[in-house]
Amino acid sequence: MNTLIAISILGVLTLIAEIFNGRKLIVPVAVVGLLGILGYTISPYNAYDFFFNNMMVVDKFSVAFSSLFIVITILLILLSHEFYKDVPSTISDFVAIKIFLLAGAVAMVSFGNLAMFFLGIEILSIALYVLAASKRLDLRSNEAGMKYFLMGCFASGIILFGITLVYGSTGTFDTIAIYQISHSTTFPLWFYIGLVMLLIGMLFKIAAVPFHFWAPDVYEGAPGLTTATMSTFAKIVAMAALFKLITILLPSKLYELDLTIVVVAALSMLVGNIMALRQNNVKRMFAFSGISHAGFMLSTLLISNNSANVLFYYATAYAVAGLAFFAVVLYVTKNKKHETIDAFNGLGKTHPLLALVMTASLLSMAGIPILSGFFAKFFLLNELVQANWLVLVIIAIIASIISVGYYFKIILAMYTKSSEEELPSVPMIYAVVAVLGLIINIGIGLAPSFIYDLLG
Amino acid sequence: MENILQAIGIENYIFLSVMLFCIGAFGVLYRRNAIIMFMSIEIMLNAVNLLLVAFSTLHQDAEGQVFVFFSMAVAAAEVAVGLAILVSIFRNTGSIDIDNLKNLKG
Amino acid sequence: MEKNIALVLVLAPFFGFLFNVFFGKKAGKTLVGLVGTASVLVSFLSTLFFFSALNANPSQPVVVDLFQWISLEKFNVNFSFLLDQLSVLWLLFVTGIGTLIHLYSISYMHDDENMNKFFAYLNLFVFFMIMLVMGSNLVILFIGWEGVGLCSYLLIGFWYKNQDYNDAAKKAFIMNRIGDLGLLVGLFIVAYVFGSLDYKVISEGAYNTQLVSNNSGLIALAALCLFIGATGKSAQIPLYTWLPDAMAGPTPVSALIHAATMVTAGIFMVTRMHFLFDLAPQILDLIAIVGAATAVLAASIGLVQNDIKKVLAYSTVSQLGLMFLALGLGAYEIAVFHVITHAFFKACLFLGSGSVIHALHGEQDMRNMGGLRKVMPITFWTMMISTLAISGIFPLSGFWSKDEILLTAFHSNIPLWIVGSIASIMTAFYMFRLMYLTFFGEFRGTEEQKHHLHESPALITFPLIVLAILAAVGGLISLPGNSWLNHYLAPLFRKAHEAHHLDATAYALMAVATVGALIGIGIAYSKYIKKQEVPVQDAEMKGFASVLYHKYYVDEAYDVVVVTPLKKLSHFFRNYFEVAFSETVFAFGKIANAIGTQGKVLQNGSVGFYLLAFVIGMASILVYLFLV
Amino acid sequence: MSLLTIFYILAAVTLATGFMTVISKNPIHSAIYLVLCFFSIGGHYLLFNAQFLALVHIIVYAGAIMVLILFTIMLMNLNKENEPIKSIASVLAAVVAFALLCFVMLAVFIKAMPQIENYQSSGQDYQSIKVLGKVLLNEYMVPFEFVSILLLVAMIGAVLLSKKQKTVE
Amino acid sequence: MNVSIILIILLFGALATYFAGDKLAKTVALVISLASFVASVAILNQHNAGISSDFIYKWISNPNIYLASKVDGLAIAMMLLTTALTTIIVWSSFANQFKNAKGFYALVLFMSFAMVGTFVSADAFLYYIFWELALIPIYFIALVWGNGDVEERKRAIVKFFIYTLAGSLFMLTAFIYLFSKAGSLLIDELYLLRLTEQEQFWIFGAFFLAYAIKIPIFPFHTWQANTYQLSPSVGTMLLSGIMLKMGLYSVIRWQLPLAPLAAKTYMNIFLVLSIIGVVYGSIVALKQHNLKKLLAYSSLAHVGLIAAGAYTLSLDGLRGAVLQMIAHGFVVVGLFFAAEIIERRLNTQEIAQMGGIRILDTKFASMFMIVMVASVGLPGTFNFIGEFSLLYSLYNVDIWYAVIGGTTIILGAVYMLKMFQNVMLGEANAKPFAAITLQESLVFVIIIAVLLFFGLYPKPINDLITPALQEIVAKINRV
After folding, report:
1. Of the partner residues C600, C607, C611, the one whose CB lies closest to the CB of residue B106
2. Mean pLDDT over all residues of chain C?
3. Where are the bilayer-spanning segments (chain D) (predicted)?
4. C593 contacts chain A (CB < 8 A)
5. Residues with Cβ within 8 Å of residue C52, at least 6 apart in sequence
6. Do C608 and B101 touch (CB under 8 A)?
7. In chain B, what are the domains?
8. How far apart (Å, rounded) are the C-alpha atoms in residues C562 and C80?
9. Which chain B residues touch C if contact means CB-CB below 8 Å?
10. Chain B to chain D, count of Cβ pairs less than 8 Å apart?
11. pLDDT digits (tens, 9 = 90+) for E11-34
């Protein structure tokens, strides 16, 4: 709870800093503040607390994911400094929005009441609409914002409808009360309809097939850093929230629901990876890749043991790889209108370190050992086999094979082609974030238990 | 005081709000004018609000109505941001036809 | 002591090889020749030691066990040597003739820049040949077997700048390998049946009636496979075509490898495994038939060849056929006898032809020779003796050995005897044709050649003389009635071979054979001395002669039946199968990519469509979950 | 006039105006229909005896949101029927989707509808301004405050998207 | 001392090589690979002395995964092969001037590291990780330092990578399934599993996909020829000399003992496929214009025979397979090195542009010749021992397998001699051909020495691998 308050205050502080001309201080202060909050969040690790009439519930799950979100936000804010160099007047706005995004995210994984959940997701969405459209003079950015906004609102309506139905059948928004009612007494079937509508709304947010169409367009059009935020941060936030919702609300495992999830997950994996094959825009490609990863993460809903662990590990691995990926992409496509793969030509020669980071991230996402992405997939598939979803495992394997095809397009560009143009020198901060991503990636690959056993 | 739903029946409200919700959805699907799409979304949210109030009455519970306030706030915020985006598109293209926004595809 | 001498026997040529390879260039040609010859001579002397030891104690063959070589689940193959009567006999003439031919080569190859290499290969060959002969099991034999094949390849292609020679070398190696596969499979069957590849164990197994009757089919198959191996190495139908081509190598090579020693390996092997072949009479019949057929076929081709070495080559094939005929009739010691006499006279003939070729600076076509008798008397006389021997003229060695074969054939199967006799009549004809064309009449070569005609130096004539003497008197080792050879070899064979008594039939047959040979000589005389005929040029050849001259078109037939289809198949595989497999794999990627491309149509940028998909997806989920 | 009749009338108005909002060619007309729709929904609220909510509803939607929208329409000078003619396919798709969604949702709810004979009636006041205020500021204090962040984000966003950006050369 | 020391040497050696800089890289790499070889020999001594070099540490507690290695004679043999060949390969490339040499040699050592890891792992998970890791360096070696047209190379190498990865992912699935049964991936615990025939069938199939592609077994070989052709020689040597042995080794270590019932039931299918590969590879090799491609197809034929031997499930077959793996490793490195020497001088791989080299450099010709005859399995060379055991084991299954598989000795001679004739013999070529250097000839000398020595005295290797293989055969026969 205090995390939420602290984050909100920090957000307001950054806004105030702008007023007092502390522009240069914004990023350092935000980062230091977030680091402090991170420490503060982790410290009562094993706590299990309720705050304010059960509006917020702090447990291992929420602490772990909150911490992960904070870390990602720190990295994103670090990148902001360089990314918004050209528009210094707005940096406080961007940083503040990112911090509020984090507040929404924290609310989404520690809600004890559906109202908190709903507000959290709306803060997240609205902030992202703004960020997507934030390059005001760029029509592509406008288009991305508009598309995201229209579809996002539509999905919000569905989520709201779902919440309403849950309320209608149980008479309360409180998750614990709902849990008790759904496990003890009889209740109208609306409850399940509501649950499914919530699920559908969240499937939209994580961009699962067939609710994924917005993602490639929006990712491509949005400014680079926003794409990074959406693809790494927003996706896993939505996934974690969905996970929490399903685990809390679903009274018992339903085969039909599981099958639905299997179909959606399988479609996401296949469609995402197959569509990514023919993409020439890196961001767009990453969007499709993200769709397939959404499919993978979605499959955690099917498993009974260690599911939170698997999700957390997968999310961490995915986010870390994605951030390192974007750190390089942001640098490489800095002065380019379109983020085509050609931009990477010859990177292997000109910037071996960045190329290495990029390669590692891509390989991690493709699931090659010893990088964390491999362990994520392994843990997931392992549990899926235990849960007897061998079909999905095979589909996941096939999808992984396809995915190598497009990840390698970038690697090929980096190592076999040569570039004609000179790239500007690497901004320190990009390199730092990239290398940090690489180190974490390999680190949690070498010692997966560190992350994997966090949620018990 | 008797529950008003005794006279009308919750199912009527559900049908009403489902239909209203669908009309809103239809508007989003059918229209290409961004402003009217916004309005359609407002209709959808209102349908849900109506349902919330109906359920609130059903359960004789205030929470549903409190939730409506949040929903309104969200609607307002969405409209504010949406219109801001719309304005900036209009400045760039001079049109608010959604079909003109097809640069990102493939 | 024995072990060490055995090792000296084996390794002496190998050291010669090593010396010539590593120091040959620096050492100079004389030293190369000396070392090469001496190393073989050392082997010969060592062999003599064993020969005397064996004579002293016939029932105690020397076994030299070195180390365990190949391990298999059921048995091990040891690296060990066996020096019994058969191997020592073989070693004697291999190293003996080998020494002579080395000696001969010193002079013959003196002008070649790669003389050291020549001697290296030659030494290596002797080494492998010794290995082949001395091995105490079939796998060691196989080392030698393949090793001599390799050396043969190297020596045939010795003048490697000429791709035709390389082709010939390649052909020899590959045809040998076809036989080798047969041998290898035969080996497996033997190993499977007898649980060992050691001669001793196998021979014991072969007398185990229980074992034999249980596996009679397999044993016959094994015998067949081994025989296939022998047809490769010993140039029998159907694998004989490499031998005439192998004449591309230097003449001493032809003498040593392709006449005297290597090609007799097949006979050696069959004799070695005689206990096995005895168990498979049907295969023995096959061997006899193949041998007889080869004898007459090759002899008939030999009738019209104009290349002096080709004639000798076909003669070799034909004589080998006769040996196999003997083997097939179960007369192993007679075959061995003929091997030895054949080694003498054929080596002599080849070396003589080499001497002629040397004198003519590489000319091999007999149509361009003639009248060399006066210029090269030693060569002429030594070759004459050998020719008489090979034609079976009393009392030269060939007479005795050939006669024994025919006699045996007559006793068991008249048609085979007839075929054999025809072959030997032909032999007499073409050998004298060779002699007449080469040494009689007028010289038909160029003026420049005529100018340089001379008798070869002593290093060349000395081996000729020695061999001619041996060819003349070699028959003494196995005279009818009192055969030293039969006695010597007796410990090898369980059932004693009854000695042929010189009865009336025997004398009659001898007479028939001699008359036959004389008829052949007579025809040759009338044709080439009386009428002074010279064979026509290639293009003018007509009718059956042309067929004969083109060797019954067997090479061409093999080309059509085996080589061309193989090439076509390779082409086909490369151009279609490989592409198909490759494209199949790519197809997965292409399909995925195609779907990706088509999928872009769906991703059309229209919000309306996206929402439509959203709604449809949502509706389907609701329908599935709540309405179905 | 029974409550049910009133409900039917109100429902008819709601649906009709909502539908007109969606299909009106002129955005201004749409807006006006939408306002009518909001009012009818307010009527529903009154029917539930939720006066405060009805009031807030009218103020926020008709008062704030609709004014904002109308203001934008005026600003962009869109009060004419300039929407391009849509292709039949897209119209058809929208209609089909609408029919499908309507059918499915209604069917789902009909199937899931519980038979409620007696609606509970606590007899207590649960929707007066007093009660709502208490609930909102006691139990729902955190979300209430959280909404401020939501609005703050919206505000920053709107400013960010509208203000002129200075770029450093 | 346990076996991890070799892994450590190679891994940190790779890093050290990278940081040594371009100039020193090859020297450092040579020293490191030599050190790893020496360490392998030390492990061998330890093994002979009866001291275990195994280790086992808990790595991940949930799911139950260990860092475990079990070093038996077989693993040691493969380890020695890998380290020895790595040393030879590094040494063989001393004359090459690679761009970014530090990266190149670091990758080579890293690959060696992964391959050694594959051979010694006793936990399937660890094994899988090494298995995949080995793929990454070769991918980059082939891609960045390869030759030929860039687009063609990309196509071929990516195909190779995706294809092999696809196969191994199915193996991973099989391992996951086994884990769900056994609760651990330690090889010894997996051996204890009693699976139904149905399960074994699927697991065997999944393994087969992985290994058939890696080895490669007909018809999964389509990546091979192009990849060999387009890789730099060092890459080709690593691929053919060691990497494909990974597949064969895995067949023996993992596939057969884990699914013995399936292996026995479906043995004939795999035998037939392998033997088709032998004949097919030989026939296709007949008509290749590219030297490295020809050698690639010859490799296909040879490993087909090895695989066939392994699938006979007999001690003879397995032992022959292992012996032949080692022999083939050396021979194929020698052959590709010969191709490399020619390419260095004539700058071509096309056979049509060669010829007459023997006249210009007899020393090279002789050494090439010896390696070539070894590759066709001439008795007295190491390859003969393997080929003999393999064919014998095939004979024990069915005589026709031995006969058809045995055609390799004929067809092998046909294409090899043809190649040798066209490349080395004939009239001297117009192009100059610098004589082979001492450094280059040393490579040949070592390879030839190994081939001849073990060809005559294979007992040391035999004694090393036989107990391990007997154990494996016992496991195959346990049902």
Report:
1. C600
2. 87
3. 6-24, 31-48, 54-76, 88-110, 140-161
4. yes
5. none
6. no
7. 7-94 (1.10.287.3510)
8. 39
9. 25, 28-29, 32, 98-99, 101-106
10. 223
11. 999 999 999 988 899 899 999 999
